[in-house]
Specification:
The protein contains 6 helices and 3 strands, in the order ααβααββαα. The chain has 149 residues and is mainly alpha-helical. It folds into 2 domains: 113 residues, Arc Repressor Mutant, subunit A; 31 residues.
Length: 149
């Protein structure tokens, strides 16, 4: 069998780019005591106060146990609060606190600048096409995963 070129695999390249972006964003978020994983949940919560924990997990593309762990950390830091749903006491509504909203407003420009910095050598048209391709790959992989269940 011929030698497989892992470095030429777009799956490997996507993973590598993701890890590098995660490391860069982690370094830039460190002074704010938040991880990119926590940021994803906090950001998805903005403008969606009262959303169920289950819906928040879906929007953040996280599983339920991971979302619970992240919300526990965000709650300890005073950035979110959970309230029992009056209609279904087994579910919680999740809310940003004033501190959480303030932090999100501080972090959005940092994330946007990080994205601009990482892609500064790529033209706008190429970035638009790149995002379209990533969305298509994601949709196709999700469909295939559902078919294989």
């Amino acid at each position: 069998m011929d030698r497989y070129d892992l470095d030429g695999s777009y799956g490997f390249l996507l993973g590598k780019a993701y890890r590098r972006m995660l490391q860069l964003l982690s370094a830039r978020f460190k002074p704010y005591n938040i991880t990119p994983e926590q940021w994803t949940v906090l950001c998805r919560l903005q403008g969606n106060d009262g959303i169920s924990q289950k819906e928040l997990a879906a929007r953040a593309d996280k599983d339920a146990p991971t979302t619970t762990r992240i919300l526990d950390a965000l709650e300890r830091k005073g950035w979110v609060r959970r309230e029992t749903n009056a209609e279904d006491r087994r579910s919680f509504g999740v809310y940003s606190t004033e501190l959480g909203v303030k932090l999100a407003k501080q972090l959005i420009p940092i994330e946007l600048q990080t994205l601009r910095d990482a892609a500064h050598e790529i033209g706008e048209d190429q970035l638009i096409q790149f995002k379209q391709l990533l969305r298509q790959i994601s949709r196709t992989a999700e469909s295939l995963q559902e078919e294989e269940k």
